[in-house]
Amino acid sequence: MGWQPAATLDRLRQRAALLAHVRDFFCGRGVLEVETSLLCSSGITDPSIEPLRVQCGQSITGTRFLQTSPEYAMKRLLAAGSGPIYQVAKAFRDGEAGPRHNPEFTLLEWYRPGFDHHQLMREVADLVLSYLGTQPVEYHAYRALFQQELGVDPLTAELDTLQSVARAELDVGGLSGDRDLWLDLLMSHLIEPRLIGRGLCFVYDYPESQAALARVSEVDGMSVGHRFELYVNGLELANGYWELGDAVEQRRRFVADNQRRCVAGQNEQPLDEHLLAALAAGMPDCAGVALGLDRLLMLGAGCEDIRQTLAFDWSRS
Amino acid sequence: MFASRCWFSKISSFPAVAASGNACNLPKTRALGYHCRHFSEPKVNGNTMANYSTNEFKSGLKVMLDGDPCSILDNEFVKPGKGQAFNRVRLRNLKTGRVWDRTFKSGETLEGADVMDRTMEYLYNDGEFWYFMEPDTFEQYQADAKAVGDAHLWFKEQEKCEVTLYNGTPLSVAPPNFVELEITETDPGLKGDTAQGGSKPATLSTGAVVKVPLFLSEGEVIRVDTRTGEYQGRASKS
């Protein structure tokens, strides 16, 4: 058996320094560190994220889910009046493994009452730059970025147009799917590589269909989700929202997610009624973001593979 | 012995060999992959191959794609935090040698390909086919010019070659990385020139032409790197 760690001891010291840096950053800004449960009574409905389940044990009635992010629990704290909070937490996503993914990974997630996504993007940049050192920072609306890099309007283009843009540069065989599949393909295969060497690139205001847990409103006559992503040299590092606070709309999205799961032959997920009740009770207007801490360490330490940042990656744990 | 003693004259009567001579810049044949035929009865392979999901794709796995056997070279999991997961897979088409990237939706499956690499002994060439024998079973296989490509320039009787079988027939053949072959034709050796640089073309017993130092003469046996077609030195023993 290979008992030895995947990361070097130097790398583990760098990880400890990163954690200390993060805590120092938030302490200086008056953001409270919190801890929430890893094993939750409901999972996540998002069809593109699959939770791991724990089904046996005297304490387990029904199924418990390893969290895919601490988002729902932290929103309950916000609704309870916590004020600004952050958490460094393990998160688990089934089937995600590769040079940039480990099924168990560390998220840094934080919430800022009173912020919108633009204010939060600036705070994310502050944190990342304070750790990585000076880098250029770009902000692009999702729509403008597609127009600039691929010459296609992601909000209005026909499905056929998106497909032909992809097929002109990629072999995708018989790939088929809805608009979001093609947009995700264009983003991950064609746009991401063009962000390499450009420092921090924030992308914001996603198509409404990709709003996830962000609020939606009209910008230039088109409905967009106020969600943002941060890419650092082409590596996706963080995903944030100007948070949806409307319990009715949140329930509608959960149900729609489950319908898409059904169509795709995936398990339906129980809705997180705790979260829905918290939203109904009233969560303050806020923006929140989840940042992959292992990936930030990859960037800081110059690693090409996430396994080099982990004491024990999935195959050794 | 299956091979006749006059195999060289047989080979040299084969036009593909007579026309050869580009010993440099030889591609590694195994990477190319070609059409082929079996020596004896074609093996009817009743095996149903397993299906493999994208998360089982790993380097070396052989799969069927668009009707051709392919070898997976690399498999990159590409997934936005929120959004569709893909696998960007680098493949080599074992028939054409083409290497390219194909993107799949994560979770898609491909059928495994009945492709096996076997170490076999080269026997002889009959002007049309090259014959190989599996040392354990003595089973013989014939590979045609497409399967063999330029690799025949390095085939030496009784040498071990890597034969890639697809549905039981040779798809490609890779010679050993190093072979020792006799110089059959070159300009006369220059005595006292051992220390100088300088090289000249030398034709080897297989028809391959390699650049050798000026001091070598016909009848000498040299060692050649088959991956580059480069002279490595005199053979330890001729």
Automatic annotation (TrEMBL), chain A:
Q: Which domain of life is it from?
A: Bacteria
- InterPro entries xrefs: Aa-tRNA-synt_II (IPR004364), aa-tRNA-synth_II (IPR006195), aa-tRNA-synth_II/BPL/LPL (IPR045864), EpmA (IPR004525), Lys-tRNA-synth_II_C (IPR018149)
What's the catalysed reaction? D-beta-lysine + L-lysyl-[protein] + ATP = N(6)-((3R)-3,6-diaminohexanoyl)-L-lysyl-[protein] + AMP + diphosphate + H(+)
Gene Ontology CC, one term: cytosol
The Aminoacyl-transfer RNA synthetases class-II family profile domain is annotated at 12-299
Give the matching Pfam families.
Answer: tRNA-synt_2
Question: Quick one: a GO biological-process term for this protein?
Answer: lysyl-tRNA aminoacylation
A single GO molecular function term of this UniProt record: lysine-tRNA ligase activity
Q: Which UniProt keywords apply?
A: ATP-binding, Ligase, Nucleotide-binding
| Self-association and partners | Homodimer.
Protein's name in the database: EF-P lysine aminoacylase GenX
